Amino acid sequence: MKRDAIDLGTVKVFTLFKKYFIPTLFGMLSMSAVTAIDGIFVGHGIGSDGIAAINICIPLLMLFTGVGLMVGAGSSVVASIQLSRGKSKAARINVTQAILFVTVVALIPSVLMMAYPSATARLLGASEHLAPLVREYLLWFVPSLMFQMWCSVCLFIIRLDGAPRLAMMCNVAAALISVLLGWLFIFPLGWGLMGAAFAATIGLFAGGLIGLVYLFRFARKLRFYPVKWSVKSMRLSFRNLGYQCRIGSSALLTEATLATLMFVGNQVFMKYLGDNGVGAFGIVCYYIPFVFMVGNAIAQSAQPIISYNFGLGYRSRVVATERIALLTSVVSGGIIMAAFTLFPHILVGLFISPDNPAARIAIAGYPYFSAAFIFFILNLTVIGYYQSVERVKPATFLALLRGFIFLIPSFILLPQAIGTKGIWLALCLSEMLTTLVIVVIYSRATRKVCLQQRTE
């Protein structure tokens, strides 16, 4: 396993960011591609009931992924600052605690869900017709939740350890295995939803295993460290984990934002546009992870650079890194928005025929919906910055704004004000209002610094 030695304190920040961003983006987009390709396979190989059954299970994946991102982001920030201060042992202990924590958190509910799949299906909202399909998918899908959490935490730590290419390979390996096995299990073998779930589980297991093996044997600075099991050590471990979770809590809220977007969006589209509207929104939901992963890649690429230099007190390098990240956010959001505006026929046609009524609704709505993407990615980047400098309150506050406080009212009120276009513009309004709040926070902070400099 080849490692890339990266000096976060001296190398030019643009060079560092580029070295992190390209493999991180590629790896994350590969995972989003898996989601889309799996949807295409299920749609063509199983049918609409298969897609519906998987959609019922998706909130579980979002929840577990959110917990993994929360712990991964928090442990990475803490370990990065500890490394910058020469406390490598403390950094290794925090990493070890993070992996053990997510394993336990995933294992207990997973065992319960596999023991009671029918009850779990009902709790997730499966109808009598879909319940057998949801149960079939859950039995083979639930084990992947723990592997997903391993991947989420390991990717943060591996990048911090100076091996962003390996972190990319964890994602790429999981993606390729899931796609290849998904095609094999669904089409030639005819295993249906069991095959789709089994393929995803094997892929995520491979990605998580690569990460764990690296941290066990090959890590430069953050190799696992033996933990003590005394009462005092356990008490300190829980305190450390609580602090990590507070730092990364906005990452969990970001995943909750996607879940809220899907749930509320389905209800509003059904009310105004019926089943075809929900179908059109369903196609959008396959592309939203791509947009999210771009923003997440920018935030995660900047995080180790910002956290390390923040720990050293190198404010100029922190500011320079964040400026590069913000510029990358605007450019990336603009490119994606242009693609949705100029080529909606192609994007929709990958899933269903453009002549389908749902397709026509989606094609007409994509240009309005994509207006949110610049603000969407920009906000994710800013939230990631606050996480990186241990400013938990503003990160959590902004995540709540965009995920709940602004999003739900926008979905409810905007269609009433301007009609069906308002459904597609609801996300844009929510993200734009969040960006305005960010501008206000930044302006106040700038004025405060200026006043302090004058008094001095």
From TrEMBL:
<feature type="transmembrane region" description="Helical">
    <location>
        <begin position="98"/>
        <end position="117"/>
    </location>
</feature>
<dbReference type="GO" id="GO:0015297">
    <property type="term" value="F:antiporter activity"/>
</dbReference>
<feature type="transmembrane region" description="Helical">
    <location>
        <begin position="366"/>
        <end position="386"/>
    </location>
</feature>
<feature type="transmembrane region" description="Helical">
    <location>
        <begin position="324"/>
        <end position="346"/>
    </location>
</feature>
<feature type="transmembrane region" description="Helical">
    <location>
        <begin position="423"/>
        <end position="442"/>
    </location>
</feature>
<feature type="transmembrane region" description="Helical">
    <location>
        <begin position="277"/>
        <end position="299"/>
    </location>
</feature>
<dbReference type="InterPro" id="IPR002528">
    <property type="entry name" value="MATE_fam"/>
</dbReference>
<feature type="transmembrane region" description="Helical">
    <location>
        <begin position="52"/>
        <end position="78"/>
    </location>
</feature>
<keyword id="KW-0472">Membrane</keyword>
<keyword id="KW-0812">Transmembrane</keyword>
<dbReference type="InterPro" id="IPR051327">
    <property type="entry name" value="MATE_MepA_subfamily"/>
</dbReference>
<dbReference type="Pfam" id="PF01554">
    <property type="entry name" value="MatE"/>
</dbReference>
<feature type="transmembrane region" description="Helical">
    <location>
        <begin position="170"/>
        <end position="191"/>
    </location>
</feature>
<feature type="transmembrane region" description="Helical">
    <location>
        <begin position="137"/>
        <end position="158"/>
    </location>
</feature>
<feature type="transmembrane region" description="Helical">
    <location>
        <begin position="20"/>
        <end position="46"/>
    </location>
</feature>
<keyword id="KW-1003">Cell membrane</keyword>
<keyword id="KW-1133">Transmembrane helix</keyword>
<dbReference type="GO" id="GO:0005886">
    <property type="term" value="C:plasma membrane"/>
</dbReference>
<protein>
    <submittedName>
        <fullName>Multi antimicrobial extrusion protein MatE</fullName>
    </submittedName>
</protein>
<feature type="transmembrane region" description="Helical">
    <location>
        <begin position="240"/>
        <end position="265"/>
    </location>
</feature>
<feature type="transmembrane region" description="Helical">
    <location>
        <begin position="398"/>
        <end position="417"/>
    </location>
</feature>
<feature type="transmembrane region" description="Helical">
    <location>
        <begin position="197"/>
        <end position="219"/>
    </location>
</feature>
<dbReference type="GO" id="GO:0042910">
    <property type="term" value="F:xenobiotic transmembrane transporter activity"/>
</dbReference>
<dbReference type="InterPro" id="IPR045070">
    <property type="entry name" value="MATE_MepA-like"/>
</dbReference>
